[in-house]
Amino acid sequence: MPLFLTQQDVDFWKENGYVKFRLYSDKEMDAICKEYDYLFKLKENSGMEAAWIGDDMIKATKGKEVSVQSVHNLQMHSATFTKILTDDRLLDALQDVMGTEHIALHHTKAHNKPPKRGAPYLMHQDYLYFPYKNDSMVAVFLNIDNSDPENGGLCVYPGSHKLGPLPDHGYKADGKDADFHWADPAKYPIEGATPIVAKRGEVVIFSYLLLHGSYVNNSERTRRMFLAQIMAADDEPLKDLHKSPAQGLMLRGFNPKRDATMEKRFHH
Ligand SMILES: O=C(O)CCC(=O)C(=O)O
């Protein structure tokens, strides 16, 4: 028996590589929103720009100037976000889809898409940013606002997690190593994806192999989100990429592989 989701949710997850459910009430969201806005206002600076660049992005935005502000590692800024990560309802839902009770943090971030000019994200798999041996990684995407295709909401290719890792068509500033990763937009255009219409307080959990992206925000509304990447505690990175504070923090269960020597006590 699942702990938090329904059996139907778990079956949907297996087939489609994602699942959407309500986690927070309006009252809980009011408190989260307040802290989120405070953080973005307090830290406001030009280094928070996180829109992707390159020819495929110019095509997707039809040359329009777009923007999205990002803060990473929110648990290092405010306990509100640490509390989300340790929320037992969320961990029950994660256990339902991940099939393990040994659950660890990879990293967190937030994307704040402004009205009228919010940047899209081309269809991509998160796998290329941080590949792991057992592909246990999932994203927890918390909708801070009601979101839909008009205000830059999320979209997915259902079932694409079964394709395995796809070739990288990302942007390469030096012509060699991709700075941003995405799938071939000719094969997987945003227009061909399934929109996810979500209410504030709803969460979408999706596999890091699921092709996902999000639309331009052409509306009068902001589109804010908080995202946590979560992995099975015993999974192992295939590349030395994307190290971040509190990575490996145990959210539930036990990590049998964690080193316990004095020599490596400062490693993370
Ligand atoms: O902010 C968004 O809409 C999408 C972000 C995303 O897909 C990602 O960071 O992997």
From TrEMBL:
One of its GO terms (biological process) is fatty acid alpha-oxidation. It is an enzyme of class 1 (oxidoreductase). GO terms for molecular function: phytanoyl-CoA dioxygenase activity. Pfam families: PhyH. Its EC number is 1.14.11.18. Belongs to the PhyH family. This is phytanoyl-CoA dioxygenase. It comes from Megalurothrips usitatus (bean blossom thrips).
